[in-house]
Specification:
The chain has 156 residues and is of the alpha/beta class. It has a single domain, classed as SPOUT methyltransferase, trefoil knot domain (Alpha/beta knot, 3-Layer(aba) Sandwich), CATH 3.40.1280. The chain contains 5 helices and 7 strands, in the order βαβαβαβββαβα. It has a 7-stranded parallel sheet with strand order 3-2-1-6-4-7-5. The model has no long low-confidence stretch (mean pLDDT 91).
């Protein structure tokens, strides 16, 4: 695989199907998938492979034990980390996407921990939710939407 356009980072993902679907998106878009523990499932679970179909073996996957481990090893430039979380973040399409950037999403029920959002308030982006009947959007859907917006801005 050539150098990835960007990286999708899942912090403490909980649902194997979403992780598998985003893995498939990463393969399609020449992106890396980074998973930060703890997971709500076993990475070898059939549900991850089923959602990733036969593409899972092509996922460029990195795993980290915790957020600080990720930062220590990856050493991502501060301005290339985009945190996507519900709430009052800037509009998702206004993120300064650059080649090699990190699109970070939290676990399905817990989201990105507040301490991380507080460490990087300028890197906080959100997708609109207009209905009071919705608690959250599907992780694989917003991850894919952000990935395609990143590609659009990179003009690739």
């Amino acid at each position: 695989m050539s150098e990835s356009f960007f990286k999708i980072v899942l912090h403490a993902p909980e649902i194997p199907g979403n992780t598998g679907s985003l893995g498939r998106t990463c393969v399609a878009l020449n992106a890396e998938l980074i998973l930060i523990k703890p997971y709500g499932f076993d990475i070898s679970e059939k549900a991850v492979r089923r959602a990733g179909l036969d593409y899972w073996k092509h996922v460029v996957l990195k795993e980290y034990d915790h957020w600080e481990h990720f930062l220590e090893v990856e050493k991502p430039p501060h301005d290339q980390i985009m945190l996507f979380e519900k709430g009052e973040g800037k509009p998702w399409h206004s993120a300064p996407y650059k080649k090699g950037c990190y699109l970070v999403f939290g676990g399905e029920t817990r989201g990105i921990p507040d301490r991380i959002l507080k460490e990087m308030p300028d890197n906080y982006y959100s997708f609109p939710q207009y209905s009071p009947h919705i608690r959250s959007l599907n992780l694989s859907n917003i991850g894919t939407a952000a990935a395609y917006e990143c590609l659009r801005q990179l003009k690739v």
